[in-house]
Design a protein that fits this description.
The protein is α/β, with parallel strands linked by helices and 407 residues long. The protein is built from 13 helices and 14 strands. Strands 5-4-3-10-11 form a five-stranded parallel beta sheet. Strands 6-7-8-9 form a four-stranded antiparallel beta sheet, with helices on one face. Strands 13-12-14 form a three-stranded mixed beta sheet, covered by helices on one side. Strand 3, helix 1 and strand 4 form a beta-alpha-beta unit. Helix 6 packs across helix 7.
Length: 407
């Protein structure tokens, strides 16, 4: 599947510090320790509606990870999926009378344009689930050969008893896992399952649903298994960061981690599980199912995409927060001030700005702290402080390279 165009990222003087991130599985902030190539997998959209601010908040967080690793001298191997066949997509297509393939294609293209406008660095591999059905089936076969699956009326389930470390990613109690499993696409009450938390790997063909041939009969992948297959094929086991929104902690990342463990024999499947917070509107998490969405494409018609990016950067990536229109207005004011400051012929020295931004951003992506550093420099510059002719241009490059904001 085609990705989107990459923005040019300026090269900065020196080398950035090692990046520290909060690992959900460890429950604490710790160093990422990639080799020469850092490996990143970020779960993509299910394309049944347009990109909303919750999506943008998540993908911006991992764009910052990408940028900070590059600044520290690493190559970055970034892979992302698009879940272009799944229950929510098929349900939306049926509700609206659209062909599910056309719906997915249209929304994926809109997602690409939104990501490009927000200057999100593109993945090396952008993979649709429908492109890798055979790989998914092969992975399920491998899990079957290792005794980790069973058949239930033609459906293939992962047996949670084959995952002795189950719960290690989320840290949740079984009671909480059962509650979330039922809310987030699982079927804890299905009769005949060995354990309520066993999850569906292959869904046997149902009337009116798309299906593909497999060793298990006609059908399609369940949830979770597609990301495991794509990550294994492109990044291998033991990659550096698996990322997504905090709503993916369980069951998605938990289940995928154990699929990968059984298949590859390595624990952890990802060295760190990193999650972005949820964005709310009118007191509730912004989600397609609730319909309380602020779409990036519509905001782009009203304002500069860099103001949208700045509005998101004003919140720490792990925090849950609520969107209000005044945040965009504040971001527009900030963007205008920064652009005025970097447009000056000279300004206060910029090396301290670079050091402080690197320190803030490598400390678990403290973007609000980084914005305050640039605000302070812009205030001094606009007040006539400093006389270094190269400083405004360097600050422009710093903000571009580390925060992704084009001034």
């Amino acid at each position: 599947m085609r990705s989107w165009s990459a923005p040019k990222v300026p090269r900065l003087p020196g080398v950035g510090a090692p990046l520290r991130l909060f690992d959900t599985a460890a429950g604490e902030v710790g160093p990422t320790q990639p080799g020469p190539t850092a490996r990143l997998y970020v779960c993509g959209i299910t394309p049944y509606d347009a990109t909303h601010l919750g999506h943008a908040n998540t993908y911006l967080a991992f764009d910052l990870v990408n940028r900070l690793w590059r600044d520290a001298g690493h190559e970055v191997h970034f892979t992302q999926n698009a879940t272009d066949v799944d229950d929510p997509l098929l349900e939306r297509a049926e509700q609206t009378g659209q062909d599910w393939r056309e719906l997915a294609e249209r929304e994926i293209e809109l997602f690409r344009t939104d990501m490009e406008a927000l200057r999100i660095l593109p993945p090396r591999e952008y993979v649709g689930v429908t492109e890798v059905i055979d790989q998914v089936a092969e992975l399920i076969e491998l899990l079957r050969d290792k005794g980790a699956t069973y058949d239930l009326d033609g459906d293939v389930y992962f047996d949670v008893a084959a995952a002795p470390k189950f719960g290690a990613v989320s840290g949740y109690s079984e009671e909480r896992m059962l509650d979330l499993f039922g809310q987030r696409g699982g079927d804890p009450d299905r009769a005949g399952k060995k354990h309520p938390l066993d999850w569906l790997l292959w869904r046997a063909e149902r009337p009116g649903e798309p299906s593909w041939p497999s060793p298990f009969g006609q059908g399609r992948p369940g949830w979770h298994i597609e990301c495991t297959a794509i990550a294994l094929a492109n990044l291998g086991s033991g990659f550096d960061v698996a990322g997504g929104g905090s709503d993916l902690i369980f069951p998605h990342h938990e289940c995928g981690a154990h699929e990968g463990h059984v298949a590859g024999g390595e624990w952890p499947f990802a060295k760190a599980y990193v999650h972005a917070g949820m964005v709310a509107l009118d007191g509730e998490k912004m989600s397609k199912s609730k319909g309380n969405l602020v779409f990036v494409s519509r905001l782009r018609q009203e304002t500069d995409p860099m103001a949208i990016r700045l509005a998101l950067l004003a919140h720490h990536y792990r925090s849950d927060w609520e969107w209000t229109a005044d945040q965009l207005a504040s971001a527009e004011v900030r963007l205008a001030r920064w652009r005025s400051a970097v447009g000056l012929p000279a300004g206060p020295e910029a090396e301290t700005v670079l050091a402080e931004l690197r320190a803030r951003m490598t400390d678990d992506l403290d973007a609000p702290g980084a914005l305050a550093v640039v605000d302070a420099w812009a205030d001094r510059a606009l007040a006539g402080g400093g006389a270094e002719p190269g400083a405004p241009a360097l600050v422009r490059d710093i903000v571009d390279a580390l925060l992704g904001v084009e001034l």
